[in-house]
TrEMBL record:
GO terms for molecular function: 2 iron, 2 sulfur cluster binding; metal ion binding. InterPro entries: FeS-contain_CDGSH-typ, MitoNEET_CISD. Transmembrane segments: none annotated. This is CDGSH iron-sulfur domain-containing protein. GO terms for cellular component: cytoplasm. It comes from Shimazuella alba. The keyword Oxidoreductase does not apply. Keywords: 2Fe-2S, Iron, Iron-sulfur, Metal-binding. It comes from the Bacteria. The keyword Metal-binding applies. Residues 25-60 form the Iron-binding zinc finger CDGSH type domain.
Amino acid sequence: MNKTKITVRNNGSLFVQGEFELVDADGNVFETKPAISLCRCGLSDNKPFCDGSHKGNFESVVKAK
Protein backbone atom coordinates (compact mmCIF):
# COMPACT_ATOMS: atom_id res chain seq x y z
CA MET A 1 0.00 0.00 0.00
CA ASN A 2 1.27 3.48 -0.87
CA LYS A 3 1.57 6.06 1.88
CA THR A 4 -1.03 8.77 2.12
CA LYS A 5 0.54 12.13 1.32
CA ILE A 6 -0.72 15.40 2.82
CA THR A 7 0.70 18.59 1.32
CA VAL A 8 0.34 21.91 3.15
CA ARG A 9 -0.28 24.41 0.36
CA ASN A 10 1.03 27.95 0.86
CA ASN A 11 -1.88 30.27 1.69
CA GLY A 12 -4.31 27.44 0.95
CA SER A 13 -5.65 24.01 1.67
CA LEU A 14 -4.31 20.69 2.85
CA PHE A 15 -4.04 18.49 -0.25
CA VAL A 16 -4.55 14.80 0.58
CA GLN A 17 -3.56 12.04 -1.86
CA GLY A 18 -3.65 8.28 -1.49
CA GLU A 19 -5.77 5.78 0.35
CA PHE A 20 -7.52 7.31 3.37
CA GLU A 21 -10.85 7.58 5.16
CA LEU A 22 -12.26 10.92 6.35
CA VAL A 23 -14.75 10.76 9.24
CA ASP A 24 -16.60 13.40 11.26
CA ALA A 25 -16.68 13.65 15.07
CA ASP A 26 -19.59 11.17 15.21
CA GLY A 27 -17.79 8.57 13.09
CA ASN A 28 -19.76 9.26 9.90
CA VAL A 29 -17.68 8.74 6.75
CA PHE A 30 -17.40 11.52 4.17
CA GLU A 31 -17.51 10.54 0.50
CA THR A 32 -14.07 11.25 -0.92
CA LYS A 33 -11.97 10.84 -4.07
CA PRO A 34 -8.35 9.61 -4.34
CA ALA A 35 -7.21 13.25 -3.95
CA ILE A 36 -9.00 16.01 -2.03
CA SER A 37 -8.31 19.48 -0.63
CA LEU A 38 -9.27 20.16 2.97
CA CYS A 39 -10.13 23.67 4.16
CA ARG A 40 -7.54 25.25 6.43
CA CYS A 41 -8.89 28.81 6.56
CA GLY A 42 -12.41 28.18 7.87
CA LEU A 43 -14.05 30.19 5.07
CA SER A 44 -15.27 27.32 2.86
CA ASP A 45 -19.00 26.82 2.41
CA ASN A 46 -18.25 23.13 1.78
CA LYS A 47 -16.30 22.25 4.95
CA PRO A 48 -14.30 20.18 5.55
CA PHE A 49 -13.48 20.49 1.84
CA CYS A 50 -11.83 23.53 0.28
CA ASP A 51 -13.94 25.59 -2.14
CA GLY A 52 -11.31 28.25 -2.89
CA SER A 53 -12.74 30.88 -0.52
CA HIS A 54 -9.27 31.37 0.99
CA LYS A 55 -7.95 33.13 -2.11
CA GLY A 56 -6.96 36.64 -1.05
CA ASN A 57 -8.41 36.08 2.43
CA PHE A 58 -5.95 33.72 4.12
CA GLU A 59 -2.20 33.72 4.62
CA SER A 60 -0.23 30.84 6.07
CA VAL A 61 3.09 29.50 4.84
CA VAL A 62 4.24 26.48 6.85
CA LYS A 63 7.67 24.93 6.29
CA ALA A 64 9.07 21.71 7.75
CA LYS A 65 12.17 22.12 9.89
